Amino acid sequence: MLNVLIRQSAVASKSAGKVFAVSIFFISAISCLCYLARAANLDMFTRVESCFSECSREMLQCHNFITPLYEGKEFFDKPILTYWLIAFCYKFFGISVFAARLPSVFSALGAIVLSAYFAKKNYGAFVGVLTALILSSCTGFAEMASTAMSDMLLCLFDLLTLITLFLGFEKEEHRTRLFCIASASMAFGFLTKSLIAIIFPVAAFIAFLVLYKKINIIKPKHLLFGIGIFLIITLPWHIALYKDSGLNALNWMYLHEQVSRFSSNIVEYNFGHPFYYMSLSLLSQLLPWSVFLPIVIWKMAKAIKLSFNNTKTQCTVFLLIFVLLHLVTFTISKSNWGYYNLPALTAASILMAKYLMDSLDTVKGNYQKYCFILPFAVFIATSIFSLVYSLFVLPVKMRTEAPHKFAEIIMSKNPKNRLVVSTDLFGQYFLCSWLPFRTGQMLHYCYQRDLISAIGEKKATWFVLPKIQFDRLPEWSKNRLQILATERYRFIPFPLSPLKTEVDNDCKVSLVLATNQQNADRDYSYDEFEAGIQRERAAFATASSNDKVHVNSLENAFQSNEAHMQSWWLAKDYCAYSKTPDVVILGDSQLGALFGADTYVFGKSVDVTGGHHSAVIEHDLDNLLGKKWKVFVCALPGAMVSDQLVISRALFSEQHRPQLVVLGISPRAFIDNCFESPLSTEAFSFFAKYDDSDKLRNSWFSPKNATGISGSTFNYYSEKNSPLTLGEPFEHIRPNEIKIGLGDGYVFSENTEEYRQRYKDPLSSRFVMQMRCFDSLLGYLARHKIRAVVFDLPITAANKNLLLHEFWNTYTDKIIEICKKNAADFVDINNDWRAFNDQDFVDSVHLNLPGSLKLTRPVALFTANKFRHLSAEELQKPRGIF
Q: Which site from 87, 565, 594, 719 is most exposed, i.e. has the minimal number of CB atoms within 10 Å?
């Protein structure tokens, strides 16, 4: 095989072509095996890999394929194509470190085949094979072939652009078609890494044409076709991005990430590398082949001098211009990393193969055969080393690294909370950017002040910080932390690292993994929930029997001017009705919109301690049914479905049951991660002790059960506050201290980040338990012959997109199934009631005042429809403001 390639390297014979194809196939196969082994076993990301992999995961999770998101925030550092490809691999191979790197692996294989083809086309078959050997085994290329980044994809498109441009220069009859392919390649490169996909190939080609005085080969039709193809490929996504995120996205992507980074106007991108950094990086990336570089340079210079206008020499000059342009440009720029040389590496490999071949041709005698075997021997040796290292060394090495130890601890304990990383920790670039992807925790960077504040919070949190910073923490904050691990972590020195003077000589820093999760969340089953209710009732019964004073009078029971929980005020208001309300509406703070509607229509503030009815819905029902029904609204902030169950058991009985219960739900009521357990909510702590309304009405509210914090004051809502936030759970309030007023109910407050945390792990046992409570609630209403209507309340599209289609399908199917089982009506306002849009919301889940009025209409219509069948015209008929 080798003799055929050598003997016919300059003769395009059929035999040489077959041998060439077989050789490239085996080189590509071996290289693919090496790259895949490294991609699978290097189970840790660099900082840049973390950005690409996490953005792609969030893209798939949120079904937002236009705007890249990183940790829930817009991320415009790079264009979209790499994210699309990684998300595609996630879809078919699962979300993993290995899948994130597959686009780079296949791009590398494509670059090897293309470079070998181009070298064969211009220099002969053996040079093509030698190019594949050099490129696939040089250290810089092999390393980047198994990274989850955009650079290898850019390398492939740059190479394709160079090949088609030069072939278009050579072949006039195919020039237009080849230039069109080059334009398409640059367009895909532009969607990969922006402007540099155009600048370097085009600048190198123009310089080449000027040098050879052939600039006139570019005709107006080439420019017209090329620009047209480029715009057809690139414009659709840019228009969609502009509509989604505005001009700021494009400004950041092109002006900030390209122009400002190159000019080093941004301090964080001025890496301070010496002027020879990029040249030394190229030499190191070409290892082990860079040892032949002096011979190659001498041979190349000699060839250019002797035959400048030869076709082969022209190809050499074109590739050389491209390599030098890369080196000079990034040497001038202070924002440079060694892997920026990757596109130049392919051109350099072709040049090395050509002139290394010329050097081997000069060897005489029997030594020539051994010299030609040398490149194959080097390739085999590097491939064996790579496979052995990836398959046997890397797995052991990964298990002993601090990041993996931290990840194992986090996943074994599995609290569903956030990961706080100190901004003073340089390890954030290589360690903490990988931890969220591996563990599923939400990542937050914070400064010293915010770190201390986070430690003081009750919610369980992971903390990763340097040992030196942990030692500087106040003693009280240290005492609140449980240290789970202290590891020494190796990292690459970085000029801007805050720890550069505080690390060991062997580039290691001591890291601390700690948590304040002594009372971390845990999932409860439905049986545990019911057992908790029984414990509350037993404890309350014992306390009541021991009291010396027992008040049976309802008036005396609620005669207190002290501050109480909202559950207490709700129970007082409900029991104050001489006749049980006809309609009771159960829900969380989203149903505070019903109070907001009263405020909006009648222009009067609603006191949350006593205004538990809906005058607007009562007015609608009077018009629809001709009956003056009482509508009672149980809207408790943060209430879960399990809370609605205990409220129903406490308020409703045979003697005190409404005709209809309306239940407003949304995903948060089933999956909220902000509560330690279903036993820790305000509603549970108050209502669980009562198993029917008679006990509630006749119970004495002792100080330990009913009173609250005295002396607390609350301001009325100002124009800057949402008028629909009814206070925090367990907040103790007095009459007239919190009111829903007209205020400024139109200013939108972004809270999707909060709900991203609330929605974490949506299909967990928490969801299953709350669905059991939902079934029990509707079953309880059915047994007591109380009609039920369930409304899936509206939320914004941004909030809805936080949850996967898998969740929505399961959620909707289960709701419909349980409603059907218990003869309850289900109305999906969130999807079917099209009157709602983002302008109706004050944040991503709560309606503003005009939106509140819109909500009352479907509630009134479908409530009335439960007693008198309404015609389609009545259901669709719009209603004006009162």
A: 719
Contact 429, 445 (CB under 8 A): no
Whether the CB-CB separation of 212 and 314 falls below 8 Å is answered with yes
| pLDDT for 5 | 52
Cα 723 to Cα 450: distance, rounded to the nearest angstrom: 29
The partner residues of 568 in beta bridges, in order of sequence, read none
In the prediction, which pLDDT does 202 show? 94
Spatial separation of the C-alpha atoms in residues 668 and 647, rounded to whole Å: 18
CA distance linking residue 346 with residue 322, whole number of Å: 10
* Whole-number Å distance between alpha carbons of 748 and 839: 8
Contact, 671 vs 803, CB < 8 A? no
Q: Does 836 have pLDDT greater than 60?
A: yes
Least confident of 280-289, 381-390, 557-566: 557-566
- Which residue(s) pair with 232 in the sheet? none
Sign of CA pseudo-dihedral 566, 572, 575, 578: negative
Query: Are residues 9 and 127 in contact, defined by beta-carbon separation less than 8 angstroms?
Result: yes
Contacts of 403 (CB under 8 A, 6+ apart): 44, 430, 431, 434, 435, 438, 489
Widest Cα–Cα separation across the chain:
117
How many other C-beta atoms can be found within 10 angstroms of the C-beta atom of residue 472? 12
The owner of tokens 């008040």 is 551
CB atoms closer than 10 angstroms to residue 297: 13
Query: Would you state the structure tokens that stand for residue 811, as one six-digit string?
Result: 């959620």
Is residue 96 helix, strand or coil?
coil
Count of CB atoms situated within 10 Å of the CB of 141: 26
Helices 47-62 and 81-93: crossing angle, nearest 10°?
70
Give the DSSP per-residue string, 724-740.
T----TT--B-TTSSEE
Q: What angle do CA 253, 259, 264 make, to 5 degrees?
A: 115
* Helix 175-193 / helix 81-93 crossing angle, nearest 10 deg: 80
Polymer length in residues for the chain: 882
Torsion of CA 236, 804, 672, 58, to 10 degrees: -50
In 3-state terms, the chain is what percent helix, strand and coil (to 5)? 60, 10, 30
**pLDDT tens, 687-731?**
877 765 555 544 433 333 333 222 222 222 222 233 333 333 445
Number of Cβ within 10 Å of residue 745's Cβ equals: 24
Q: Contact, 652 vs 658, CB < 8 A?
A: yes
pLDDT digits (tens, 9 = 90+) for 276-290: 888 888 888 888 888
Q: Please, are residues 512 and 486 in contact by the beta-carbon 8 Å criterion?
A: yes
At residue 382, does pLDDT exceed 80?
yes
Alpha helices in 44-150 (DSSP H): 47-62, 81-93, 97-123, 125-137, 139-144
DSSP 431: T
Mean pLDDT value of segment 360-371? 63
CA torsion 405-455-429-90 (nearest 10°) is 70
Q: Which residues pair with 486 in a beta bridge?
A: 512
Q: Which pLDDT value is given to residue 727?
A: 35
754: amino acid identity, one letter = E
Q: How far apart are CA 539 and CA 781, in angstroms?
A: 26
| Alpha carbon distance 620, 617 (integer Å) | 5
Beta bridge partners of 584: 632, 661
Start-to-end CA distance of the chain, whole Å, equals: 90
Cis-peptide into 581, omega within 30 deg: no
| Spatial separation of the C-alpha atoms in residues 357 and 350, rounded to whole Å | 11
Q: Supply the DSSP string of 159-176, one letter for each residue.
A: HHHHHHHHHHHH-GGGHH
Q: Locate 599 and state its tokens.
A: 């405020």
Task: Note whether 343 and 326 are within 8 A (CB).
Answer: yes
Render the burial of 275-284: b for 16+ CB within 10 Å, e for the rest: eebbeebbee
**Helix axis angle, 592-602 relative to 849-865, nearest 10°?**
110
